[in-house]
Amino acid sequence: MSAAPRITGFDTYDIRFPTSGELDGSDAMNPDPDYSAAYVVLGTDAGDGAEGHGFAFTIGRGNDVQVAAIEALRHHVLGLRVDEVCADPGLVSRSLTGDSQLRWLGPEKGVTHMAVGAVVNAVWDLAARRAGKPLWKLLADADPEWLVSQVDFRYITDALTPDEALALLRAGREGRREREAVLLEHGYPAYTTSPGWLGYSDEKLARLAGEAVADGFTQIKLKVGADLADDIRRCRTARAAIGDGVRMAVDANQRWDVGEAIAWTRALAEFDPYWVEEPTSPDDVLGHAAVRAAVAPVKVATGEHVQNRIVFKQLLQAGAVDILQIDAARVGGVNENLAILLLAARFGVPVCPHAGGVGLCELVQHLSMFDYVALSGTTRDRVIEYVGHLHEHFLDPVVIRRGRYAAPAAPGFSAAMAPESIARYTFPHGEYWAARAAAAEEAPA
């Protein structure tokens, strides 16, 4: 009898794309982002060719630190039985978050926790590939009891118990097949940030905003927060380009103190912003609550930099947000995002994921589609962020039709990058970065 297959490969890559050259991704807090991925590939000796791909998203400098954090988890993963981890990815999640010495660096926050998320997401990618299903369907088809077993309820039972989660998931199964058919036919609603990067000219903003509406998007988003006069002008430009029937959100990327957030949002209220995103520090639960109370009816959205399920719990308990924004790579992977989706369902708050980064659109679509099919049962007031760059580097890129995400059909988590992209953009010795370094050396002083 042959030995049970095990995880035998753990390869990491520091992949960086030079998006700062065109100011793609620029905002008030991050003016020069190079969208990057600290990338991990899990290999096995199962003989079926299946791999697990995952990554943590960063914006350039420091991606090497994120790769090193992922590398520090290698010994937890190599040698694990493939069948066991695919049947219970929670085994890996619990092992990585429970390492008593690595945990001291958090616990469950920052670079180490994002590294856990990258590895856990790679395990889910492997599990979905071996099951022959896209991740959203693997989750939607799963027994509610099994899904509850994947969630770490430590620190959140004062807001959500396992029994309450089980009841939500059992209720979510009603009408599941009909919603799956609707998803496959119509996709999931999206909004686009592509027109609104802070470094773009007014002309480019107006052109891209008009194109977004023509392409079927019913919501766009603008970056704000650097200069109020500029923001007023840009909001006026965008509103003129899209008309009154299209939603426009604004995103401050944590730029403001609480009082400043209130005053600035009120100054932009004439342009009817649907939500103001990250108006202050992502750790400031009470600050968000104060902003929300002061700027209504403008909604408050946050979550892309929220560190863990515990802070999400507090935001919901404090009534601090109207829109919860999960991120597929910020917290500890699929398992923790299941906890956050369940918390949002428990409090009746819509989830509109963050996806403004390399590969984040590819990942988070699966979580929202699971939520629609088998948990919340609705897409009302729910949209997934979409940005239009870097999808060409993925083997199973997102597909947008008339402003909606088409449901992925390929097995896995849509996380795998093209080998040629990995080779070209691995830092610092990939083809692109090596050529750039050589050109810099040859340039006259």
Automatic annotation (TrEMBL):
Kindly give the Gene3D superfamilies that the UniProt entry links to this protein. Enolase-like C-terminal domain, Enolase-like, N-terminal domain
Known InterPro entries for this protein? Enolase-like_C_sf, Enolase-like_N, Enolase_C-like, L-fuconate_dehydratase, Mandelate_racemase_C, Mandelate_racemase_N_dom, RHMD-like
The chemistry this enzyme catalyses reads: L-fuconate = 2-dehydro-3-deoxy-L-fuconate + H2O
Keywords per UniProt = Lyase, Magnesium, Metal-binding
Q: Report the domain of life of the source organism.
A: Bacteria
Q: Could you say which cofactors this protein requires?
A: Mg(2+)
| Enzyme Commission code(s) on record | 4.2.1.68
Q: Which residues form the Mandelate racemase/muconate lactonizing enzyme C-terminal domain?
A: 202-298
Which SMART domains does the record cross-reference, listed alphabetically?
MR_MLE
Question: What is the protein name given in its UniProt record?
Answer: L-fuconate dehydratase
